[in-house]
Amino acid sequence: AWQHIDRAEGAVVAFEGCYLRKADDGASWVVVFPTARPPDKDASSSSLEQTALRQRRYCLWPLCHSHRLVNLGISTDALQVIKLVIWASWHLSSKESVEQVVLPTLSASIDVVEPCQRLSALSNQVETAASTDVLPGEDESLIGCHKRLQLYQRYEKQLAEVVLRILKKVKGRHRDDLGGLIRHDCLRRPESIYVPFIDKETSALSQMGRVLQRLLVPIVSKAGIRGSPATTKAWTQLELALDACFRGESMDRERCLAKHMQITKSAFAKKGAEVLQNIYTSEHEDRYAPTIQGFSDSEDDEPEQINGPEEEATAPLIRQFEVQPGRTYVDTAMDREVSSGASLFEDGAGYGRPVKSRHAVLTFYDEDLPLYYVSLNRERLKIQYSACSGLCLGYLVHKSVFSELLEDALRCEVDAGRGKEAGLQSVRTLRMRLLHWVVDVLRSPLPGDTKTWILRCSERMGMVA
């Protein structure tokens, strides 16, 4: 079965807490987690609540930004309406008049690639600062990012409510005058809430309101008609997405936007967060490093027991290791810079931010994970499926294992006067060799404690290791 999946183009495979996505080169697989942080309020949203920001899973822009990354299956009609809400919310949050920007025409499709890229960058910057307890107080740049993101989320929630109520009124009253319904619902809003679908002076539909009417016609005109499953699907997906955006924090039960796609649900995100937490933290016995005194080349000699200093006949000490959150790595931005290489996905729209490294680990909400995915050559290593252990496809390795080594490589090239570009090339070369080396270590018959000791030496001592 895996041979058939491996040959499929653009295949997506669901695992326990994450997805595997086939890249456009037809050979590489990309690991996609739902999110970098647990979705429950007790764990991750406490820092966001202090900044008065919503979690990304309650926003609309990630659906447009990453829907093709996991083949989410959102219909084109519903996606266009969601893009219009994102486009309007983004320009409203820029403190510009919507009439001053280039409005989407009635015939052209709406392009929100740049707003989604900017929203992803703003969210990553603000959430990274919040996770490290750095709140926007004195940093003017961070304050500006926080205000822009907060304004966008407020406008997005307001416009999502407007379109959602229009859909529900169409469903309840079966009105044919869609333009009049849009105008009536927008006029009943208080003056403090600006709705760009009507003109303030004439109270008629604005150009954006006519675009909304044009986009809703194929959805509301045939929704629920027997023999038209496409439009029924568009109506359901649009209503679920808008409802999750409007009252996501207070919803009693989540529903999938597409069949068999659990990546937008909190239960699946919790499983993925548990997998990531198990990688970030580790426990093992505090053992001493093996020395040459503990070995003998004679089979007749009785091995001498070498005790560490102050060793007592008690239970071994269990040490816990946890990676520091919010740490930056030298190759994270390098893997996102596609100017010097081809991207894993040729058409960047709908795949999140561009990425060119097949070892990068992504999330549906476009966060940066400090992990490498190292795939195994199953044919060369003769790895086959086992009924008890399954099929090993690769390893997830934390970036902290090689961070010191890669930073030393970059620093050596820069200090030698060769420039940062030469340093990044040295980082790429060294990283490729280290990832092949770590696979050999993990697949070796060495004891688990010895493997842990080797990786800890690489992490703590850098070039000295």
Q: Can you characterise this structure?
A:
The protein has 465 residues and is of the alpha+beta class. Helices cover 44% and strands 8% of the residues. It contains 15 helices and 8 strands. The chain has a 4-stranded mixed β-sheet with strand order 1-2-3-6. A two-stranded antiparallel sheet has the order 4-5. Helix 13 runs antiparallel to helix 14. The radius of gyration is 27 Å and the shape is globular. The two termini are 42 Å apart. Mean pLDDT is 79; it is low at 291-297.
| Fraction of residues in helix | 40-55%
Beta fraction: 5-15%
Number of distinct helices: 15
Strand order within the widest beta sheet: 1-2-3-6
Calculate Rg over CA atoms: 27 Å
Please give a quick description of this structure.
With 465 residues, this protein is an alpha+beta fold. 44% of the residues lie in helices and 8% in strands. Helix 5 (113-131) packs across helix 6.
Key words describing this protein structure:
alpha+beta; 8 strands; 465 residues; 8% strand; globular; 4-stranded mixed β-sheet; two-stranded antiparallel ribbon
Layout of helices and strands, plus pairs?
Layout lengths: L1 H6 L4 E3 L4 E4 L6 E5 L11 H6 L10 H6 L9 H18 L19 H19 L8 H34 L4 H10 L19 H14 L8 H19 L18 H15 E5 L32 E5 L9 H5 L24 E3 L7 E5 L2 H4 L12 E5 L4 H13 L4 H23 L5 H14 L4
Parallel strand pairs: 3-6
Antiparallel strand pairs: 1-2, 2-3, 4-5, 7-8
Helix pairs in contact: 4-6, 4-8, 4-9, 5-6, 6-7, 6-9, 7-8, 13-14
